[in-house]
Amino acid sequence: MALGRSQRISQVGLGTPQVPWSRLNVALSTFNGTLDALGLYSHLVALPATDPANGRYLLGPFEPNNLVALKFHGTHGSEANDKTGTFRVWLLSELIAPWLGDGPVEYMGDPVIDGNLVIGNTTVNTSSKIITGASANLHKWVDTINVTNDYTRDGVVKIGAATDGAATITFDKVGAPYVLVQLELGDATGLGVCFREV
Length: 198
What we know:
This protein is mainly β. The protein is 0% helix and 41% strand. The protein is built from no helices and 10 strands. It has strands spanning 22-23, 56-59, 67-75, 84-95, 106-123, 139-150, 157-159, 168-172, 178-185, 190-197. Strands 1, 2, 3, 4, 5, 6, 7, 8, 9 and 10 form a 10-stranded antiparallel beta sheet that branches. It is globular and about 55 Å long.
């Protein structure tokens, strides 16, 4: 029996919010050194800056959603296929003192992921102004993300990891408003990161 007008239940859409992917900075990481120490960002009085020359990308601030997704791409002259890199991810949470009123805000960082990247053979659209506009070199998507250390609460989830695809990882940021990603070149000449909340 159909419900009367006064008895109808309100319809509420359920599902994953449609949040677009973002790319923070047009410059690729050109960092070829040692990733920052796990404990380097344990306590900060200011947020670290995005610094592609040292491979650092500060993502956020995020809404209090619990998951974030990352997708990577890279270059190497005219052929990026099978070139490599490494990455490290920290969560940066705010530290406040309620008795001090509106300030100051400090930050506490927790390392959550270490991993290796392998660029695949799927080319980013060469007409892109968001990704390929960053370099004259041909960009290709990372198709292999190997997590070497997982310090997350519930584990890293890989999505779409397939040969020559565009792999994605998702993880719980446990309410942290900022995520810091550092990219280090292996034999790639440039690496970039895209992100979204899920």
